[in-house]
Design goal:
- The chain is 71% helix and 0% strand.
- By secondary structure, it is mainly α.
- Among the domains are: 100 residues, no CATH class; 144 residues; 131 residues; 134 residues; 98 residues.
- α1 packs antiparallel against α2 and α26 packs antiparallel against α27.
Length: 950
């Protein structure tokens, strides 16, 4: 029944095509008749204005005709070509050369146009496709093609089940049916190609018939081989390949869908035909030929979907072979990948440009970055690059188990890089080659955890009686090689050469592409060289890696010089100069790590950065000062990795004059000299940044030297004591004052805001460490045997005096809230010193909180706090400091609260009375002091406020 329906459907399709052909022929004859009438009117000298009715009639007739569609990828329309030819020759749509119109007719037409302005008719909107069109013109064709293909298969199946004919006859009839379908497709194409609307290109009946025939032939060949053994493996492989290639060839006539079918058939052929001895050369040779045939057809018809699928299929076969084959041969896979690279570079997309591709739907983007990352045939180039990347990474993962896997990886990566350098559309091969080179180097350097599972087998645990059960070895044990360090270094050199050549080639055409290559050219070799050095090199002294790094560094610095010639400073940011100079500098830094060790490496890096800054006297490159910033970051990273610079065992225990002074101090001095050297540099940002880095390194130098001296020459992670923390606080206070002085001498936002930032951070440190974290009252740390020259002096009194001096120095130079914060911090430290000194007087050098409080001690606190408040009041009046006077008021308030809340309940007898008497006397004295001293000061705001009339 299905076979009869398929034949009926085929007959109906032919009838429909013939009827549509006759209708189109009648419409064409009518148009030709109208054109002849217009020609006759023009030949008779009739003015164009008079011929308007005829033209209106012709236009009305043409409006009834379907709109000629725009030419698409499929069949070329002779009708559209004729219209384009007429338009190119200057003829009207109905014939007649425009320049051949008589002069009087032209004049009459111009007069008529001036008299009556006829607006041009708007182009009619293309009608939306109807449901009937979708059902009758599209789905019927697709379903019919599927029905024909299934009909051929079901015919063979039915003859097998009924036993009507022998297998050979049945297969021959099925093959004949497939050939008939393909012949019918070609017949229909030749008869109906000029008449089928381009809107139905994806439902072309000839292509559907040809596809059905190809599927039938493919199924017949496979059944003859797999089920009846009429064909051997070589003959079946050849016949399946012939069907696949013929389908790809016919796709030039029938469209991209048929090419996809042929591609699918070619990819399935090796999987369907199996042999006892697989041949990787035959496999990848056949796949390469099928891939080239697909790309040749795609190049002719400008296809992107089918070649992208071909790339995916080739990658899947390569990955399947590399992961599943018992014995891997690298050379067939490598040649297949090289075929991909050459095919993309020479065949498709080849030398295509954006102008040769069809215009995309919608307006094209004017952004250069969008144009760069959306090149012509982007689907082909992207899938092709990925199809080469994944097999290359798998080859890298096979090192050193598989012979020559390392050479295969290097060859594929360099082929991708060359493709990215030589073609203007190959942005994705360029970027993906960089990713593959670095990722593959990492894969080759870090051996997989499960590498030896398949080679060494598994040792079974002993049983209870001491014997060991035999365990089968999972696979053969190949001879393991070594990771080729020399090959990795050769890859770094080759990639650097390709990258520099790409920059040279792309500078004239695409500056953005050249900029990307200028980033990749030094970055990829640097990553490869660094990974190789850190994994396989001698970290103390490695001559091979060090010399190569020196050579590459000088090469990239020379390239930056060569590409920068003839450019002016006003030309804007020149990315190749920045990237190549920074890359060369990074190679020299890596060379220092390979050729030196310890303190010499740190000092060499700092000197190299300073040399880059002083090189601005020879070349005014904007990148040179920023190299010193990179130097500071590298030195900071080395310090974070090894704070002792030379190792804890080699660090001298001599205070101050040890390796730390050079390792921390010399980079700080060089940063300060670099900032001074750039005092007239037009970019103030880099000078300010270097000033900030110099300040931080100086503070770090002082702090590390204190740490070293306070801990007996040992740097560890233990919590610092109060004495050590006090030295840090004093250093920060001095740094704030120094930066303030530098700002007053040479104004700089770094010194201005840096001094306040350092001061604010130091206040936070005091609150957290001096008062809470390291307070001897909480920690129980002993104060020392000497009553005054003890831990409280360095921990509280001296920092308090320092904060007071800093507040006095910052007065009228920094914002008032900042000055008040410093003054209050100094007062708080002085208050803490007085309070803890009272506790030391009553409890000795141990003042821990667990000892409790004595009644005389409690009374002493009240007396001392009141005296301190009076003293602060006198100091605030002397220096006219409102913040100090407010601090004194705060202390007096604390004393008042203590007397009323604590002394009243805890003291007894004469001490309680003396506490209240003293408090009252002090308060009365403070009042008299304010009335007499403050009101008697001439020209002060207080006097004005006190003497103001009520």
């Amino acid at each position: 029944m299905l076979e009869i329906l398929g034949l009926v459907a085929f007959g109906l399709a032919l009838y429909t095509l013939n009827a549509s052909r006759n209708s189109a022929q009648k419409l064409g004859d009518e148009v030709m008749r109208l054109r002849q009438e217009v020609e006759a009117l023009k030949a008779g000298g009739v003015p164009l204005a008079a011929a308007a009715p005829a033209e209106e009639t012709a236009e009305a007739a043409t409006e009834e005709l379907p709109e000629p569609p725009a030419e698409e990828e499929g069949f070329s329309s002779p009708w559209a070509a004729a219209q384009a030819d007429e338009a190119g020759k200057g003829r009207s749509i109905f014939g007649g050369d425009t320049p051949a119109v008589p002069a009087d007719a032209v004049a009459a037409s111009e007069t008529a146009e001036e008299t009556v302005a006829v607006p041009p008719a708007a182009a009619p909107a293309r009608p939306k496709e109807s449901f009937e069109s979708r059902i009758g013109a599209r789905w019927a064709v697709w379903v019919g093609g599927i029905a024909l293909a299934l009909g051929g298969i079901f015919m063979v199946k039915y003859s097998i089940e009924a036993g009507l004919l022998s297998p050979a006859v049945r297969l021959s009839l099925a093959a004949l049916f497939g050939l008939v379908l393909m012949a019918a497709g070609e017949f229909v194409r030749r008869r109906t190609q000029p008449l089928i609307a381009n809107a139905f290109q994806n439902a072309m009946i000839p292509g559907v018939l040809t596809a059905a025939g190809a599927i039938t032939l493919f199924a017949v060949t496979y059944v003859a081989y797999a089920f009846y053994a009429y064909l051997g493996a070589p003959a079946a492989f050849v016949l399946l390949a012939v069907v696949a290639f013929a389908t790809i060839g016919l796709s030039l006539l029938h469209g991209q869908a048929l090419a996809g079918l042929g591609l699918l058939a070619s990819l399935l052929t090796p999987a369907l035909v199996s042999t006892s001895e697989p041949n990787p050369w035959g496999l990848f040779g056949f796949l390469g030929i099928a891939w080239l045939a697909t790309f040749a057809a795609s190049r002719i018809r400008r296809w992107q979907v089918v070649p992208a699928l071909a790339n995916v299929g080739m990658a899947l076969w390569a990955l399947l072979y590399l992961s599943q084959a018992d014995t891997v041969e690298v050379m067939p896979v490598l040649l297949a990948m090289l075929v991909l690279a050459l095919g993309h570079g020479l065949l498709w997309p080849g030398g295509i440009t954006a102008e040769e591709m069809p215009a995309p739907t919608g307006a094209a983007s004017a952004d250069p970055l969008d144009r760069l990352f959306a090149p012509p045939a982007v689907a082909v180039s992207l899938t092709g690059a990925l199809a080469m990347l994944f097999p290359a990474l798998m080859l890298a993962g096979k090192v050193p188990v598989v012979a020559s896997a390392d050479y295969g990886f290097v060859a594929v990566v360099l082929a991708l890089a060359l493709l990215g350098a030589l073609r203007c559309w190959a942005i994705y091969p360029a970027v993906i080659s960089a990713v593959g080179a670095v990722a593959g180097t990492v894969a080759m350097s870090a051996m997989p955890v499960g590498l030896f599972i398949d080679t060494l087998g598994v040792v079974a645990p002993p049983t209870l009686d001491g014997t060991t059960l035999p365990v089968p070895v999972l696979g053969p044990a190949p001879v393991l090689g070594s990771v080729p360090v020399g090959l990795l270094l050769a890859l770094a050199v080759a990639y650097a050469a390709v990258g520099l050549a790409a920059v040279r080639l792309r500078l004239a055409g695409s500056g953005l592409f050249a900029a990307i290559w200028s980033l990749l050219a030094p970055a990829v070799p640097l990553a490869i060289l660094a990974i190789s050095f850190l994994t396989f090199g001698n970290l103390s002294f490695d001559l091979k890696h060090g010399l190569l790094a020196v050579v590459l560094g000088l090469v990239f610095l020379g390239a930056a010089e060569a590409f920068s010639r003839g450019r002016q400073e006003t030309d804007g940011v020149f990315v190749p100069q920045w990237a190549l100079a920074a890359g060369g500098f990074a190679f020299l830094v890596l060379a220092l790590h390979a050729l030196t060790d310890g303190l010499a490496t740190t000092l060499g890096i700092a000197l190299l950065g300073a040399a880059a800054v002083f090189a601005t006297r020879l070349r005014r490159w904007p990148v040179l000062p920023w190299l010193m910033v990179g130097t500071a970051l590298v030195v900071a990273g080395r310090i974070a990795w090894e704070p002792t610079i030379v190792g804890a065992a080699n660090l001298s225990k001599v205070p101050v004059f040890n390796q730390l002074l050079a390792g921390y101090g010399i980079p700080a001095v060089l940063l300060a000299l670099s900032a001074f050297e750039l005092r007239r540099w037009p970019d103030l940002r880099i000078r300010n940044l270097l000033q900030a880095l110099a300040s931080l390194f100086l503070l770090l130098t002082a702090a590390i030297l204190v740490r070293h001296g306070m801990n007996g020459g040992v740097l560890d992670s233990s919590v610092p004591t109060l004495g050590e923390q006090a030295i840090y606080t004093l250093l920060v206070i001095g740094a704030s004052a120094t930066m303030m002085s530098l700002d007053l001498k040479s104004p700089s936002p770094v010194f201005r805001y840096g001094s306040m930032a350092v001061g604010g951070l130091s206040v936070l440190s005091v609150l957290s460490a001096h008062f809470i974290g390291l307070n001897p009252y909480f920690t129980g740390e002993l104060l020392g045997r000497w009553p005054f020259f003890d831990l409280l002096l360095i921990g509280y009194l001296i920092p308090g005096i320092a904060y007071g001096g800093l507040a006095w120095y910052a007065q009228n130079r920094r914002p008032l809230p900042y000055v008040i914060m410093l003054a209050l911090t100094g007062v708080a430290l002085a208050f803490a010193w007085v309070t803890l000194s009272v506790r030391r007087y009553w409890h000795g050098e141990g003042i821990a909180d667990w000892k409790g409080f004595l009644q005389p001690e409690t009374y002493t606190y009240s007396v001392v706090w009141l005296l301190l408040g009076v003293a602060l009041l006198a100091v605030g009046s002397k220096f006219d400091s409102k913040s100090i006077r407010l601090a004194s008021a705060g202390l007096v308030l604390i004393a008042v609260v203590k007397v009323f809340l604590i002394d009243m309940s805890n003291l007894e007898g004469i001490l309680r009375a003396l506490s209240f008497i003293g408090l009252g006397a002090v308060l009365i004295g403070i009042g008299l002091f304010y009335q007499k001293i403050l009101s008697g000061k001439a020209g002060t705001e207080e006097k004005v406020e006190l003497n103001a009339p009520s």
